[in-house]
């Protein structure tokens, strides 16, 4: 066990660090970023309204309005706290499916995340 | 009734005479000056005319009463549209305290706070404490129900109410009903009263004489103003079906931060200005977000609503006043119908 830990620390960790650094440095190599997605809240709407991501992806919502909003799954899968201006909410989707959501304060605001 | 109307007209004319302006000139001037609009209902026929500044004195006969509606104070909001919403609420309270005819009470039609924070409610309470009418009736806006299903709001302002904060009371023969249409909103929908509240409302109104004047107040308009922005209440039609048999129904709302009026049969609808910041006219902007106006114009687009109930005429007169005096009322054109 102790040997294994040393192995991880001595070999895997530096490699991972290198990969991370490479990823950060190069805009074209974005294996992880490409999977994740951003949704902006502007003018009382989610943009893009529909986002498709692979299983395991993290979606991050950012409220850019002067008014608070929420990001709440219609089927109770996820539920943000109230997000005021510039506040974010993230959710990582572990299962495939279509996830409709809305702002509980302004229910006309709706969107969906399609996880494939 | 006719006499009442005549009184108002006479008084208008008298004021004109004092000012040395003819009636046509006066009306034009008032539309520009935005002092307000008297809104009188008589036998289901709405009558509107420019508000004469002396009206309040005349209305204060014994048995008559006055209340003031304030709305959308959004305490905690600090964005460019109004960096100091506490100060503008204070201005509104000062205006109420300076009224010649002392209002019997205040109705706040919701969005007391921006984020339902205890500190925001504390600040609101502090300012309202200075109001001369000690009785204040509240209904919540969606901004007041953001934490713990509205518990913070209900603990402070919902004592003795039902469900998510609805209730009714009587004042000198007028029946008032405070409704909540900001709780448990459904995806894609507008405001919602919900089945429990509708049943309660039906029972609350049952057995009351059709001659009882009824005032319904709620945060989101109980009539559909602009569905794209959610400016309406999905099940308001059912609620309004319960008041159809009454001879005088007044519906007071907030939420849209501007004056809108409509009369449908014996039901008169009215929305109030905010004390915090204006919002755009329906469809005139990409969204309903706070509208930034030059600082010197802000007080013209914020305001209070003064409602006079005249017993002899069974009429309610609704008068909107901007916080700043004698300047253009941005929403003046919307008061014509």
Q: Your description of this structure?
A:
The complex is a heterodimer of chains A (116) and B (337). Chain A is built from two helices and eight strands. Chain A has helices at 2-25, 31-35; strands at residues 37-42, 45-47, 50-53, 58-63, 72-73, 88-92, 97-102, 110-115. Residues 19-31 of chain A have low confidence and may be disordered. Chain A is α/β, with parallel strands linked by helices. In chain A, the strands form two sheets. In chain A, strands 2-1-4-6 form a four-stranded mixed β-sheet. Chain A has a four-stranded mixed β-sheet with strand order 3-8-7-5, with no helix packed on it. Chain A has two domains: 1-32; 36-115, Cupredoxins -  blue copper proteins (Immunoglobulin-like, Sandwich). In chain A, a hairpin with a 2-residue loop joins strand 1 and strand 2 (45-47). Chain B is an alpha/beta fold. Helices cover 24% and strands 21% of the residues of chain B. Chain B has eight helices and 13 strands. Chain B has helices at residues 2-19, 23-33, 55-59, 85-97, 118-128, 151-157, 195-205, 236-241, and strands at 37-42, 45-50, 65-70, 105-108, 136-138, 167-171, 174-178, 214-218, 249-253, 260-264, 267-271, 303-310, 315-322. A six-stranded mixed β-sheet of chain B has the order 6-7-8-9-11-10, with no helix packed on it. The longest helix of chain B has 18 residues, at 2-19. The radius of gyration of chain B is 19 Å and the shape is globular. Chain B starts with a helix and ends in a 15-residue tail after the last strand. The A-B interface holds A 43-45, 65-68, 70, 74, 82, 84-85, 100-102, 104-108, 110 and B 79-81, 114-116, 142-143, 146-147, 185-190, 227-230, 286-290.
List keywords for this structure.
heterodimer; A: 116 residues; alpha/beta; Immunoglobulin-like; 4-stranded mixed sheet; B: 337 residues; Purple Acid Phosphatase, chain A, domain 2; 6-stranded mixed sheet; 5-stranded mixed sheet; 24% helix
């Amino acid at each position: 066990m102790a040997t294994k830990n040393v192995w991880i620390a001595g070999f895997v960790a530096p490699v991972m660090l290198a990969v991370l650094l490479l990823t950060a440095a190069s805009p074209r190599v974005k294996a992880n970023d490409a999977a994740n997605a951003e949704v902006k809240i502007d003018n009382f709407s989610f943009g893009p309204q529909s986002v498709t991501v692979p299983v395991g992806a993290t979606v991050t919502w950012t409220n850019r309005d002067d008014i608070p909003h929420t990001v709440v799954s219609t089927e109770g899968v996820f539920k943000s706290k109230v997000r005021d201006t510039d506040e974010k909410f993230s959710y990582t989707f572990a299962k495939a499916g279509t996830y409709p959501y809305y702002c509980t304060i302004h229910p006309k605001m709706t969107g969906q995340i399609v996880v494939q | 009734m006719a006499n009442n109307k005549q009184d108002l007209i006479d008084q208008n004319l008298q004021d004109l005479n004092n000012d040395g302006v003819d009636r046509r000139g006066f009306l034009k001037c008032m539309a520009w000056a935005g002092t307000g609009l008297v809104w009188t209902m008589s036998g289901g026929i709405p009558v509107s005319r420019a508000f004469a500044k002396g009206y309040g004195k005349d209305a204060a006969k014994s048995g008559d009463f006055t209340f003031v509606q304030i709305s959308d104070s959004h305490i905690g909001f600090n964005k460019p549209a109004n960096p100091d919403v506490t100060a503008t609420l204070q201005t509104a309270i000062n205006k109420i305290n300076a009224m010649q005819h002392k209002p019997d009470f205040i109705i706040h039609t919701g969005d007391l706070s921006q984020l339902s924070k205890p500190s925001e409610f504390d600040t609101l309470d502090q300012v309202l404490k200075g109001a001369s009418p000690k009785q204040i009736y509240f209904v919540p806006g969606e901004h007041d129900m953001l934490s713990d299903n509205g518990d913070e709001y209900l603990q402070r302002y919902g004592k003795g109410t039902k469900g998510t904060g609805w209730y009714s009371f009587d004042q000198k023969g007028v029946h008032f009903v405070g409704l909540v249409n900001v709780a448990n909103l459904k995806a894609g929908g507008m405001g919602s009263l919900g089945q429990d509240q509708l049943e309660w409302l039906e029972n609350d109104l049952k057995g009351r004489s059709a001659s009882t004047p009824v005032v319904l107040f709620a945060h989101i308009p109980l009539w559909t103003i602009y569905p794209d922005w959610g400016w309406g209440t999905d099940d308001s039609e059912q609620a309004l079906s319960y008041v159809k048999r009454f001879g005088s129904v007044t519906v007071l709302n907030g939420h849209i931060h501007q004056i809108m009026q409509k009369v449908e049969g014996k039901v008169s609808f009215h929305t109030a200005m905010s004390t915090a910041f204006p919002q755009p006219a329906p469809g005139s902007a990409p969204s309903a977000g706070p509208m930034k106006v030059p600082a010197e114009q802000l007080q013209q687009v914020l305001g209070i609503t003064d409602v006079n109930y005249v017993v002899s005429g069974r009429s309610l007169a609704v008068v909107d006043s901007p916080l700043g005096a004698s300047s253009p009322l941005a929403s003046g054109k919307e008061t014509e119908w």
